[in-house]
Description:
Elements: H1 4-19, E1 30-37, H2 41-54, E2 59-62, H3 71-79, E3 83-86, H4 108-126, E4 132-134, E5 141-142, E6 149-150, H5 152-158, E7 161-163, E8 184-185, H6 191-202, E9 207-212, E10 214-216, E11 222-224, H7 225-236, E12 242-244, H8 247-257
Parallel strand pairs: 1-2, 1-9, 1-12, 2-3, 4-7, 8-9, 10-11
Antiparallel strand pairs: 5-6
Helix pairs in contact: 6-7
The structure holds zinc ion.
Zinc ion binds at residues 37-38, 87, 91, 136.
Amino acid sequence: xxxxxxxxxxxxxxxxxxxxxxxxxxxxxxxxxxxxxxxxxxxxxxxxxxxxxxxxxxxxxxxxxxxxxxxxxxxxxxxxxxxxxxxxxxxxxxxxxxxxxxxxxxxxxxxxxxxxxxxxxxxxxxxxxxxxxxxxxxxxxxxxxxxxxxxxxxxxxxxxxxxxxxxxxxxxxxxxxxxxxxxxxxxxxxxxxxxxxxxxxxxxxxxxxxxxxxxxxxxxxxxxxxxxxxxxxxxxxxxxxxxxxxxxxxxxxxxxxxx
Length: 259
Ligand SMILES: [Zn+2]
């Protein structure tokens, strides 16, 4: 057990670590990554040309077998500089969703095999080995009750980052766990809502990792095209001091530049 002086010193150190300034490159005020999940077809059919016209690079977390429906499209995504991540094979979430095999029934060994299989299939098909992972439904456990376990250590072992979903707070770079990055909702919100998230994040230099699904006209589970166009103009305005890049590139900076 720590004595009082050691405890105070430890507390002071922790406070310093949390409050010490973290520098984004080129005096930027915050960082933003745009990410989409599930290998949804609209990401290729609508997103590919749109992102090219807006000169934005995203991170796409592919799940199987959806990825195989547009292999040429994903290859084109890569050619245009987008990042390919892993979103598992079975897309297992809590059984309460009732659309996949339940996380409550998984073992860590099965989860490990499921994720390795997706990485293997993506590498065999697209020639790139994903270094980023997105937790299906943002859920990070297997099992139930007293025998439930986190599979975050598995992701930490296999990937540079793991991203959650529908998390309330964007990432504070000095302290965030790269294996459980907060994912900010990107579906069904208009540009003013996106801007409000960025303005709040700019106050203490956070990293916003937007997490979306479809790309199209405003609808549930869809990043709205018009909102995305307005967002692009806002992100590109030098007055706002925003570094926009893939999860992999920003994570590398965070990992090597924080105290
Ligand atoms: Zn998903």
